[in-house]
Amino acid sequence: MSTPSSAFLKQLRKMIHPSDPRIGALGDVVLSTSLIARGRDIVPLGSTERRVLAIGEGIAMRYRLLPDGGRQIFMFLLPGDACNPNLFNATPMDHAIAAVTPVRLEQIPHDSMLVLLKKVPEVNQALWSMADQQTAVMRDRIMGLGRCDARIRVALLLWELVMRLRVSEAQVMPVVIPITQALLADAVGVTHIHFNRIVSEFCRLGILATQRGRLFVTNPRSLQVIASEITCAA
Amino acid sequence: MSTPSSAFLKQLRKMIHPSDPRIGALGDVVLSTSLIARGRDIVPLGSTERRVLAIGEGIAMRYRLLPDGGRQIFMFLLPGDACNPNLFNATPMDHAIAAVTPVRLEQIPHDSMLVLLKKVPEVNQALWSMADQQTAVMRDRIMGLGRCDARIRVALLLWELVMRLRVSEAQVMPVVIPITQALLADAVGVTHIHFNRIVSEFCRLGILATQRGRLFVTNPRSLQVIASEITCAA
DNA sequence: CGGACTATTGAAGCGTCTCAAAGCTGGTGG
DNA sequence: CCACCAGCTTTGAGACGCTTCAATAGTCCG
């Protein structure tokens, strides 16, 4: 069985096929892990990696800084998500990736991945799927930013995180989102201050509960209702 | 030489390597084209394609409709751009692609692509690069939508289009952008009406000139200046 | 020549930002 | 073990960017 305690390999396996025999080859991959402290960069701006990096545990973010000190967060990366699914990319990163919580990072040298790729071509396909999923998340973000008011954008983001957390971690009901309000605000493109007013409202509605540094989603159902007030047809 | 009159194959060739000998194999690909009228869908919502579709000539858009009748445009596709660079994707589209101008569409069956892929593995790499370029464009869009006011978003979009048009078509100075103001507005997330006020301002500044259905960029330089008033460090 | 689409202009309303300030909470060092 | 400090959260009031609604004008096509 070679249970891959790796979140990344687990996700890879899931994308290939429920029970492909060649999946055993995944165990042969050279995988190392390291711990990244909260707030530190995992992949700095302008870097070119020669390993596949993936989130093993914790939460990270793709982001970019602006000259005025602002910051835009493109998306949050959850356990199993790859920072750079494109094995062949030689161009320097146009953004950075940092740890939102303490992160256990999984690293696989490109060489090792390429060997695997030759043995199991379906891995390439799986990597494509992972990349596609991430761009789908970004499309949803563009959708929200371009067409919805802040209230709905917040609901959309939280709903997205709840859904994605449910698969990576098997969460129980009060879903925990261990991300600062300021960071969440930087993702939906509002001031952390206005974000907070919206959170307060959701708390009053019994949808959320707060604690320093984290949010509890007590009622995902109504979150989705709010989100779908304007959400897309897809 | 087998000059591929195909914009897509040209782009593919460019991404592989300036002068790889195996590039000749690109000519063996099964390529057909068809004409799409302005406004028609190229790839409808929910479809699953078994061919690679690419823009040969003209401009298309990735977009999604909202229940309230609104529309968000994720990005514009220019000659050479692929609608679906992921050969292995079997999941239905979560958005649609339509022709902004009359479009000459290039179609290559997946079978044929896979044959090519086996002969020239670098093609896979090239497809990855194309996908990466598109997500880079989307990241820039998120950046703008989340962090910049409308004036700058407009400058950013127009600057992006000017840059990308310069490579696909060898444009001369008054760069023509044959896209309706209403559509451009739907891309940057403002009312077409407010978009028009910004265009008017840019006209007064001598940056733009207008004509029914198209924009002329007469002074790209100052466009970039405005765009970089807040733009990212990258 | 009529009809449909595109562009343009004005005025009122509101969503969000900005600035300013003050609680809180948890972790750190004394 | 306590005090302090940095980071996170919360609250208020004024300003402004953008939307909305309404209406007119220009331009292409059948």
TrEMBL record, chains A, B:
Q: Does the UniProt entry include the keyword DNA damage?
A: no
* MF GO annotations: DNA binding
The UniProt keyword set, sorted, is: DNA-binding, Transcription, Transcription regulation
Pfam families associated with the record: HTH_Crp_2
Occurrences of domain HTH crp-type (ranges):
148-221
Q: Matching InterPro entries, A to Z?
A: cNMP-bd_dom_sf, HTH_CRP, RmlC-like_jellyroll, WH-like_DNA-bd_sf, WH_DNA-bd_sf
Q: Name one GO biological process term.
A: regulation of DNA-templated transcription
Please, which domain of life does this record's source organism belong to? Answer: Bacteria
Q: What is this protein called?
A: Crp/Fnr family transcriptional regulator
- Source organism of this protein record: Tianweitania sediminis
